[in-house]
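Protein: MIF4G domain-containing protein
Species: Hemiselmis andersenii
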Amino acid sequence: MVQQPLSMGPVKPLERTENAYDINKTKPVTHYDLVMKELRGILNKLTLTNFDKLTQDIIKIEMVDPEELKGIVSTIFDKSLEEAHFCNMYARLCNQIKDKLPKFPEPDQPETDPVPGQEKPPKKELTFKRCLLNKCQEEFERADRYDELADTDSTPAERAAKSRKVRVRMLGNIKFIGELFAQKILNEKIMHECVKRLLSSTDEDTIECLCKLMATIGKILDHPKAKHYMDYYFDQMQLTAETVGKMPNGNRLKFMLRDTVDLRKANWVPRRETSGPKTIEQIRQEAAREGIVA
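Structure follows.
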């Protein structure tokens, strides 16, 4: 026996509400979105070969808001940390554009009453260089970088992946800071402060950052006027090498520190040449010297 469906009478059509979800409805594209899209497109194509042309393209990007300037700094900064092999190129890029991008009044500056008989002090400006320095400092001093690793809901594999990501970002930031110093965007005082901060810890990642920084800037920092500072740093590194060498699995750090000490003794000439990004012409010249091409 087939059961007849219950009759519920005429069905009232659904009414469309004001906040109904519309799959075709898209978020309005802002000028900020367009600026970031243009910048990312340029950075994705940036190489040493087209460096000069694309640098000019970045300078020509029209910015109308301080948030766009901050966005440009953040995007270049993150790109340099993700692609640490190209840190030198991104530091050069920063050096080329730092004085050519627009400046904006510093937002949210408190109004101060003028001192009688004196001119009102000019408002601080938000510049590319200032944003970049703030970004480097924030990343260097981040206290929450390991918070995600404490997530008990993550699997061991997920925590290991997060740990690698944190480590890559830390080392990338240190290398980028060193390259910015080499480009004279950061001054020597800042470098000494960074070294002192890194020397104060025997944490594995911090020691590796210290060795990475010294390998990047040591040759520039090691001049007669700073000799007593450098002597102190390396005395401390030798002591740290002995300390960590007694720890479980501390041999890697001990030899890393000793290699850095030996690098200074060798007048900052590395035992193995560190290869960075090269232009197509440089690759062709090397191939010709080695007889790979005619």
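Remarks: Residues 82 and 168 are 8 Å apart (CA to CA).
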